[in-house]
Each structure stands twice: as C-alpha cells, then as structure tokens.
C-alpha cells in the first residue's frame, strides 16, 4: 500500500540548482559605499591638494599681502597701502618691460601657432608615424636653460656656427642676441623651436577627434585639401585650439629663463621682459613689496586675457554633434 505525502511537491529550476534570492540593497548600504568611495578619493586628492595649498594658493595670498607693504627681508614688512601700485603706474621701466613682453608674446604665439598647426595637419593627413611624432617632440624634452645656452653658442656673433655659415655665404654676421632689433625676435624663435613640437602634438590629438567620414564626404563632393582645412578642420578644431592658445599665451607672458641665460635683459633693456624686471627688483634690489605689486598686476592682466580669449574663441563649445 502506497502512502501519499501530504507535503506539496518541490519546484526546482532546471538542472536541479536551488533558487536563491539576493538581499535587496538598502539606503544604508548606498550611503556607506559612497562614504568609502569619498574617503578613497580624498586619499588620492590629498597630495595634489596639499601641493596646491602650499606652493600656489599660499604664495599667491602672501604675494598679494606683500604688494601693500615695503619689505626687504632684513626688516619686518611695513604697510604702505597703494604706494607700490602708484609707483608702478609712474614707472617708465615697468611699461617698457610690459611692451617688450607683449612684443615677445605676439611673435612667439603667432609663429608657434601657425607652425604647430601646419605640423599637426601634416602628421594627420600624410603620416601617423610614432617615430616622427617622437622626433617632433624632441626639443621639448630639453629645458629652457639648455636650449638657450645651445642657441647662444650657435648664434654667437664671432664664434657661433650660425654666423660662420652666414659669413661663408658672403653675408655680414648678424648680432642676433646683441642687437636691440634682433634680440626679442631671436629669443621668441628660440622658444618657438623648443615648444612647437609639444603644441603640435596637442593639436594633433584634437585632429584625431574629427571623424574621417567628413573628409571622405568632402572629397566625394570635390572639395580640395585647402577647402577642407578651412571648412572642416578649423571649425571642429576650434575648442582644442582655443585651449592651446590660452595655455601658450599664459606661458609666454611668464618668459624668464631664456632671457636670463642669453641676454640678461640687454642690450639696453631691449629684452628686459616683465618677469625679468620683477626678478631683478626682488632679488637684485630687495624690493619685494614692489616686485609683488608688479606680480599682482601681471596676474590681473593674465586673468583678463584668459577670460577674453575663452569668450571670444567659445572654448567651452564644440561644433561636433
């Protein structure tokens, strides 16, 4: 006789595996998980934040304070209000240094941007060789001081290789770094030679984001390379080009080391750029309050130029869909 079981038959999934249900995630789990991620993020951010506070924010605030004082390292800072700024406005050397700096920036940015854009487009349209990109970047791996010294020897009026070649060709030697007319353009071109490869690679990275389909469609329509450059490349590269211009302009206004090792502000203050004048006022004449005032003025000028560039170039918007 068969005895029937009163318990209902078990329902097992195919394969005999036991069905399990995961425990639903609660709000407390989400909060604790977010706290753990936040702590981990804080650990990674802490070194950079500490460096920002110690080496950037604090010196900036300290410099702004010193710009309202008379301070020479030997005596405590004496509050003088706006005297340093009044002196700066009436200082002809300051305005001359600012003019020299603007001349340098115009030459450096103009030549560097055009040359870097041409190199980037050639790398994009003709070849994508990693070796060629490495060769283009090579001068940037050299420090400004070393680059300045090398070109100082090459362009020396009497013994430089460059002037030896010019003399061998039958032309007169050119005092590239010893003449008021040639000095600033020469320094600007030295820095163009060093930085153009890095700028070109930044623009090359921007070109990589432009879809090739647009160029192919333009070729089908019979567009030339020149027309594609102006109608496709330039509009779509604009946000990257704007950021690169902002970076290079800020860097150009802070030129110092190339001038220090080649001309030391000469001849006759022809290369006395603003950074070099600030350095001379602070560490040459120990007028740290006045030097701080000029530094604050430079900070204001760079901030205004950056904001103006950002708005005019629409750096925050792109034409890519």
From TrEMBL:
It is a multi-pass membrane protein. Residues 1-33 are annotated as: Disordered. Keywords: Cell membrane, Membrane, Transmembrane, Transmembrane helix, Transport. It is found in: Cell membrane. It comes from the Bacteria. Residues 98-309 form the ABC transmembrane type-1 domain. The chain crosses the membrane at residues 40-61, 104-123, 135-154, 182-205, 236-256, 288-308. Its main location: membrane. PANTHER family: ABC TRANSPORTER PERMEASE PROTEIN, DIACETYLCHITOBIOSE UPTAKE SYSTEM PERMEASE PROTEIN NGCF. Belongs to the binding-protein-dependent transport system permease family. This is Sugar ABC transporter permease. It comes from Streptomyces coeruleofuscus.
């Amino acid at each position: 006789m068969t005895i029937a079981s009163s318990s209902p038959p078990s329902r097992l999934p195919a394969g005999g595996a036991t069905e399990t249900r995961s425990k639903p995630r609660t709000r407390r789990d989400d909060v604790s998980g977010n706290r753990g991620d936040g702590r981990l993020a804080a650990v990674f951010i802490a070194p950079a934040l500490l460096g920002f506070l110690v080496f950037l924010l604090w010196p900036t605030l300290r410099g702004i304070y010193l710009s309202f004082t008379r301070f020479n390292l030997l005596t405590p800072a004496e509050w003088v209000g706006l005297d340093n700024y009044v002196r700066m406005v009436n200082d002809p050397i300051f305005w001359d240094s600012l003019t020299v700096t603007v001349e340098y920036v115009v030459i450096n940015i103009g030549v560097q941007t055009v040359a870097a854009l041409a190199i980037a487009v050639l790398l994009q349209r003709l070849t994508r060789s990693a070796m060629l990109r490495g060769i283009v970047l090579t001068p940037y791996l050299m420090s400004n001081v070393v680059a300045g010294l090398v070109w100082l020897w090459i362009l020396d009026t009497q013994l430089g290789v460059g002037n030896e070649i010019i003399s061998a060709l039958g032309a007169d030697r050119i005092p590239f770094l010893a003449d008021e007319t040639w000095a600033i353009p020469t320094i600007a071109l030295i820095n163009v030679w060093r930085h153009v490869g890095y700028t070109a690679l930044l623009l090359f990275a921007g070109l990589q984001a432009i879809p090739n389909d647009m160029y192919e469609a333009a070729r089908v329509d019979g567009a030339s390379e020149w027309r594609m450059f102006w109608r496709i490349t330039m509009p779509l590269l604009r946000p990257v080009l704007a950021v690169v211009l902002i970076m290079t302009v800020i860097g150009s206004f802070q030129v110092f080391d190339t001038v220090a090792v080649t001309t030391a502000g000469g001849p006759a203050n022809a290369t006395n750029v603003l950074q070099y004048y600030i350095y001379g006022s602070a560490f040459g004449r120990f007028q740290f309050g006045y030097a701080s005032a000029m530094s604050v003025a430079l900070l204001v000028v760079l901030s205004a130029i950056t904001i103006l560039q950002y708005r005019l170039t629409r750096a925050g918007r792109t034409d890519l869909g």
